Amino acid sequence: MTGNQGRLGFFETPQRDRLTGVLVPPGPLELSVEEVRQLWSFVHGDIMDGSLRRLLRASLGLCPRHAWAYAVVEVELWQAGAGARGGHQPFDVTILYEDLLEHVADGLDRKSGLLHRHPEEVLVPVGPCRICQDLASPDLPGLRMGYANSNTEALTVEANALVHTTTWCLETVGLWRDRVCPDCDPGAPEGAGDPVLLCRFHLAGRGPLPEQLRHAVAGRLREIRGRMRHLTESMTDYGSPAGAVENTSWIEALGFFAGWGLPLYLATDPREAWPAPGSQGTEQGG
Ligand SMILES: [Zn+2]
Ligand SMILES: [Zn+2]
Fold first, then answer.
1. Cα 12 to averaged position of ligand 2 atoms, centre (Å)
2. In angstroms, rounded to a whole number, what is the distance separating the alpha carbons of residues 98 and 231?
3. Does residue 58 lie in a domain region?
4. From residue 274, how far is each of 111, 223, 284 by CA, in Å?
């Protein structure tokens, strides 16, 4: 499956492909014990730490597989938290991707000029996925140990069941179904659809981008970020409860950064058009 990489257009260089990772097609993730071990300790790490935050901006978070896996591990395994759900919610994930949405929106809004010839380069990572990197160097001391000696094998089985992630996707599918990146969506005709909805991979493949499209995408990312901030606060002791539009925000954010393969797999039959409940005129025939 090289289709996605072949569409990266003028951004395509072997070095960048390595950094970019590969979009995951609709299907289960099937995480390995080692991946869950790494991600579980990443969930417990301090992502607000300044130097780690800079690295995570350079890599645009995690690669597509590990971005979704990060959310899955947190949502499936985190038992207790503040807010209405009291756990099984993407708290760390929303904090990280809130920051990255702003980072990318700022980059896309930048004026192109001598310093920033191609503002859309902000869509392409300049550093490796941290989890891929840690998995590639398993001899580092300390990494073989699960967080607080937790039983990572049992946690892996639990994470791969995707119970709570599926619930989140099914609860929100009516709101995100018609915001899926048209190039990620096997149900959408190729090349059709609103380019503002493209994920960062497929958007980078269309570069150089017209200024108007860059600003429109930046506006969309800021709008998602606003809802996601509300969602983050709803998971604390002081925040007001989140509604459906806030609950769907993290799926839209990860869809942008990591493609739509997992939610499409969990909540839709990708060959069918899913009209949003309460929306008018969404039937696409077929
Ligand atoms: Zn990775
Ligand atoms: Zn896409």
1. 16
2. 11
3. yes
4. 38, 23, 9
Whose CA is closest to 179, among 283, 242, 241, 252?
A: 252
Span from the CA of 236 to the centroid of ligand 2 (angstroms)? 32
User: For residues 184 and 202, what is the distance between their CA atoms, to the nearest angstrom?
Assistant: 8
pLDDT of 150: 65
Q: Establish if 281 belongs to a structural domain.
A: no
Q: Which ligand is nearest to the CA of 184?
A: 2
- Judge residue 90's burial from the number of C-beta atoms within 10 Å of its C-beta, 0-12 exposed, 13-18 middle, 19 or more buried: buried
Whether 9 contacts 244, CB under 8 Å? no
Give the pair of three-digit tokens for residue 234. 């709803």
Q: Which domain holds residue 230?
A: 13-267
- The string of pLDDT tens digits covering residues 62-106 is 999 999 999 999 999 988 777 777 788 999 999 999 999 999 999
CA–centroid distance, residue 144 to ligand 2 (Å)? 34
How far apart CA 248 and CA 237 sit, in angstroms, is: 21
- Cα 236 vs. chain centroid, distance in angstroms? 22
What is the CA(256)–ligand 2 centre distance, in A? Answer: 7
217 CA → ligand 2 middle, Å: 13
71 Cα–ligand 1 center, Å: 13
Residue 86 domain flag = yes
Q: Which is higher by pLDDT, 133 or 225?
A: 225
Alpha-carbon torsion 98, 101, 107, 111, what sign?
negative
Other CB atoms closer than 10 Å to residue 55's CB: what's the count? 14
CB-CB contact of 264 with 180 (8 Å): yes
150 falls within a domain: yes
Task: For residue 64, give the ligand nearest its CA.
Answer: 1
Please tell me the distance between residue 67's alpha carbon and the centre of ligand 2 in angstroms: 14
Domain count for the chain? 1
